[in-house]
Amino acid sequence: MFMVMLLFDIGNVVVECEHAITYRRLQAYGARKDAVRFFFDDDSLDFARGKLSPERFYSRLDPRINVTFDQAKEAFQKHLYGVNLEVVDILERLRETLPREDLGFLTDCNVWQVERVEGPQGLIRLDYYSDIVFRSCQIGMIKDDESLFPYVAQQVRRSPSDILLIDDNPENNRMAERHGWQTLLYRYPEQLSRDLKQRGILKEE
To answer: How far apart are CA 143 and CA 108, in angstroms?
Structure first.
């Protein structure tokens, strides 16, 4: 039995995403080009923490982003455009070999993202791979928050040193490391597979 628990980030690891897609959609709906970058501002972080409802987030958008609520939601969800099939293949192999409680997900997300990724017409069924999914909008914390990592370790009843975060954001990994977690910086599927094999977590095919 493996002693380390794996927690996968979702965006840009399991699910492909690109903010520029949202910017282009907003501009197509009439938003000013110099304003669309403010769509992902501090309010978007509080939206991801679950502190703002979708309606409240929309009401606080820069007035130059002059779009309807439905257009804002659609533009946001468009930036999540597919799954990384090679990473999904790694998840499949881990699901077959790891105890179910040793695999999970830790993601910064808002309710629009949850719907797009996990909803009835979503991109992937995370619960197929694990019962452990920490969504920031449900727990009230994102990876920028110091309190998140001790909270998650407590919830999974693991020592921090027995948790491995797989994330594409170096800042998230550094934060996790400050709290005693192991980390693996995701860059591309072949590197992820190689690193997991070197750690003895992923078996050779």
So the answer is: 7
Beta bridge partners of 133: 105
Here the tokens at position 59 are: 């009401």
State residue 96's pLDDT score. Answer: 95
43 pLDDT band, cuts 50/70/90, is: very high
Q: Which helix (H) or strand (E) holds 7?
A: strand 5-8
Among 109, 49, 29, residue whose Cα is nearest residue 77: 109
Long-range CB pairs of 57-65 (<8 Å, 24+ gap) are: 57/110, 62/35, 62/38, 64/31, 64/32, 64/34, 64/35, 64/38, 65/26, 65/31, 65/32, 65/35, 65/36, 65/38, 65/39
Nearest Cα to Cα of residue 136 among 10, 5, 1, 3:
10
Which three-class secondary structure state does DSSP give residue 49? coil
Burial string for 86-118 (b: 16+ CB within 10 Å, else e) reads: ebbebbeebeeebeeebbbbbbbbbbbbbbbbb
Note the pLDDT tens digit of each residue in 52-104: 999 999 999 999 999 999 999 999 999 999 999 999 999 999 999 999 999 99
What does the block give as tokens for 6? Answer: 């794996």
Cβ contact 29:38 at 8 Å: no
